[in-house]
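Purpose: get a first structural picture of the assembly so the mutagenesis plan has something to point at.
Setup: two entries, given in the order below. No constraints added.
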Amino acid sequence: MNQSDHQAALAAIVGAANVLTNAADQAAYLTDWRKHYTGRAMAIVRPGSTEEVAAVVRHCATHGIAIVPQGGNTGMAGGATPDTSGQAIVMSLTRMNRIRKLDVTDNSITVEAGCVLATIQQAAINVDRLFPLSLASEGSCTIGGNLSSNAGGTGVLRYGNTRDLCLGLEVVTANGDIIGARADGEVRGLRKDNTGYDLKDLFIGAEGTLGIITAATLKLYPAPRARVTAFAALATPRAALQLLTLAQQRCGATLTAFELISDLAISLVERHYPPHRSPFAVRHPYAVLMEISDHEDEAHATAMLEGLMEQALEDGLIDDAAIAQSLSQSDDLWQLRERVSEAQAMEGKNIKHDISVPISRIADFIETTDALIAAAWPGVCMVNFGHLGDGNLHYNVSPASGETEAAFMAKQGPVNKLVYDSVERFGGSISAEHGLGQLKREEILRYKPATEVALMRTIKAALDPQGIMNPGKVL
Amino acid sequence: MNQSDHQAALAAIVGAANVLTNAADQAAYLTDWRKHYTGRAMAIVRPGSTEEVAAVVRHCATHGIAIVPQGGNTGMAGGATPDTSGQAIVMSLTRMNRIRKLDVTDNSITVEAGCVLATIQQAAINVDRLFPLSLASEGSCTIGGNLSSNAGGTGVLRYGNTRDLCLGLEVVTANGDIIGARADGEVRGLRKDNTGYDLKDLFIGAEGTLGIITAATLKLYPAPRARVTAFAALATPRAALQLLTLAQQRCGATLTAFELISDLAISLVERHYPPHRSPFAVRHPYAVLMEISDHEDEAHATAMLEGLMEQALEDGLIDDAAIAQSLSQSDDLWQLRERVSEAQAMEGKNIKHDISVPISRIADFIETTDALIAAAWPGVCMVNFGHLGDGNLHYNVSPASGETEAAFMAKQGPVNKLVYDSVERFGGSISAEHGLGQLKREEILRYKPATEVALMRTIKAALDPQGIMNPGKVL
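Result (structure tokens, whole complex):
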């Protein structure tokens, strides 16, 4: 069969309108979100059901055609972009966007892979429930991509990563079998089921290299009655760690966010998004953004945060504190955190790292790594922020004053290596929440023990012996 | 090599004192906790370190010797008992019982597989932290067994199964590689790490059939400031479900236990453990035991429970309620739940089922299945209790009045089949928290889709091609 025969065979499965073959139609699917990678594809195939996904996979398996699954195309590591051979198909799951089921007693929702995250959040809100996964691209990313990359975000401290929010998966394997669904099409989603190997967690975070996630049953939580945000000024990341321990003791599971932001990061947001400003009259080296989600009421949540801040001031952990008195004040504080990436991008290119270390080592990591970078490249700027409660930093490096972008970006390799070597010495991970994709596929070999890489290869070879599932990603 | 050569080779690795070959020394390792299975072994081998485990595995891999890993030997499904061939070794991990590390800022503890669960709980208490895994055998079960069977228990509603409490694993694979440990021997335990396949969750719940868990890094939580227990009288499981939803809304994450107990179950405890009595003057068909773990104080927790109970009475969900006013009252209420199994055993043998269904279907499941059983075997008694908040019931059947034990137990096969077929129709699991072991290894084939069984076999063949890891269990 030649390419047009394959295109016709795929059209017979999903309909001609859902097999995109010309350049203009394909363009949006071939370049990643960060515009680092552009590939080519034999076709963009848009199945409308699990059965269609399975039939497409069987066709590809028979003919050895590579499949690149894609959701909202918002990935940070090029995991959903095909290579330049033009031999693969991109399978876009966005047509599979139904909410199949929602049960308030089970506190669960069953959704298809192409559901946009914000749609799921809203469906939960509509029945007084919370789906706690929340991240910057929530308006366009899909849950299939969130699951495939085990996305993190701002609610991990309390609710865990996407993996922790998943009760059951429907998956099409590399040979076209459908697993995880009952005979009636329902996706299993039990709170307890110890009947053999944990197949679901093998596909979560595998970035489409072992099979295609087509639907999932996810956890919901009762909607909190109140959310209250506070901003605390601190001198050091070490003080922030002590504040974290105190907040966990005093607030328990009501503590749902604990974000560290350096003063430089705040300054960049203030410069580029002027309505948003630090609530403090004077500058402080660091700030922590905290959120309490309370099942009682706003007065109770505010009192809890006030009590915490008073004790933190007394203990000398913080220098100042502000508690949002309204939803709009709370949103303002959150913008100081959420706009950092965009504000930094407006200054020009920078070298990003999505890393994690054990929480207890974050302060040492920052001190040590800042010093190493300052010694190697005097004058470069550290824009340092992230999910302190999870040990996850977005540890970004910007050019020294007056340095050209080209000169600075030429340092990317050595800067990455210095940062990742430091992460490794502190027992951390070079990809905390963004995955490996094609971006860190080579780099990980430097840090992951050979025995673990070998085991990953064994699993890949067993589940996808032809290597048709998203080749060139992860491994 | 003959058997005594192998015994000598193993003694050279772990020391002669740690290779048990005579019948008297071996006996305690060869029969399971419930005394359903007795096997034989070439030797009981008791390694003292991960390196010794790896060396033993390499010896066994070279010579095709089967390995049956064993912890506290408290399993409910015969998963740690060898077959009767006498060709396997039992590898007891109980000498590996060190707590390697505890970090209060990370809220994590690294323990060896042979650590007794209660020891880990106590280590956490000593630093004002909570390790929330709690189950009946906690005084003798080991964490390696808890992880290998993904144990549940009474804290799952809030904290999840053992899987959810694990941040990282050290494992010896079937070829004798050690994975999950850093070069310095520390077991990785990051809150976020998206650098490839989730190897850890493959070994959790695999019951030793894919590799041997030698150590783990586990989550700790801040110790709650107060725990308050309540007991509510209800007419039906359906009312209990409505109470669960109400409790989740009003108490959020402070709700840490929600157990259903039938009146017959309570009566059995009262008969056999007379100091423990229902707090209510009259009988009610069902009771719910609830626990609040509060990060504020006892007054706050008690007020929250009182408010909940008042509303539940007003809404007509419950008929009566009692809130424990002291630790000893609280312990009394818990005994009514925890003594059920023992009390039922004192009445004679019964047919047990550890099943789960979606939470929303529990009431329908009980009604339907009770009726089917009553029609098939008039007069038999249902002793029904369990973790309602997780959809997990211990749905046990006792003989009709006057029926001999032998006559009753002859029905075990058909009773199991009726119950499990009903579980399947309700979309449930035939093993919620006890695993498959050798007990349900055949039965699961009736209920798990063939595609999923095939995928499990593919994984087993890839990770343990010789089939030496705990053969005859799970698959």
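The longest helix of chain A spans residues 298-314.
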